[in-house]
User: What shape does this take?
Amino acid sequence: MMGHASLLDCPLCQTIGGVLLWQGPQFRVIDAADPAYPGFTRVVWTAHVVEMTDLSAPEQLAMMRAVFLVESVQRKILQPHKINLAAFGNVVPHLHWHIIPRWEDDLHFPAPVWAAAPQHDAPAQAALDARKTAVASRLPAYHLALQQALG
Amino acid sequence: MMGHASLLDCPLCQTIGGVLLWQGPQFRVIDAADPAYPGFTRVVWTAHVVEMTDLSAPEQLAMMRAVFLVESVQRKILQPHKINLAAFGNVVPHLHWHIIPRWEDDLHFPAPVWAAAPQHDAPAQAALDARKTAVASRLPAYHLALQQALG
Assistant: This one.
């Protein structure tokens, strides 16, 4: 593993990286504040480690429990069509998980959100905007439920 | 959760979905046989479930242990720059994980492998091809180590 950012260069060591929803000693939960994807949430490990296999087994379990707790609250409150989970770290090699609620009418579905976005015609765009607004209206309830679940 | 494929329509219920490396009662491990990404491996849950939170806690743990075991063997034998982990299921809503070894010269780096591929000039393409060939030559050792680790 070469060329990874030092702590001083690492945006997830130097900044929150989103809107802080919950902070514990091992990890924090942030809203990614992605305008195309209301509810897009990240779990960020506090220490600057790169890969899941850099964690001990109990740490891996704690991290994945948080990821699955976010998934569970997204399913309950936001009721998406599908959940997407990913840990890449190619750009920011500081361990973090993406938990993304997906809808069949969203910008990239069924492709991952990192794919090139296909064109939407005006009626499809209007439907997408209306659905996004409806999801955004549930974000306060989602964030509250997350915070309660994280304890 | 609406519109998910039935078992009869599900390619991961009806086919292996790649080159079978290991099969247990709960999950199987397959080589994705992606020509751009030698070593791209998937862990596929045997039963037709959609989300990680459809599994019990012990099942989640078994699945993630397998994913991290694949990551660990990839790091040891293939020595990539980074590991990418993802579970989407937007196209095939049958629980499966992608474990992808990434290199700084690969087709999409630092973007996820599902992004649009940037153009590579001829020297970069030749270097990429040479590195891919070197990785491909380590696949038998990688597959053997995986099978030994899975027991």
About this structure: Chain B has one domain: 11-150.
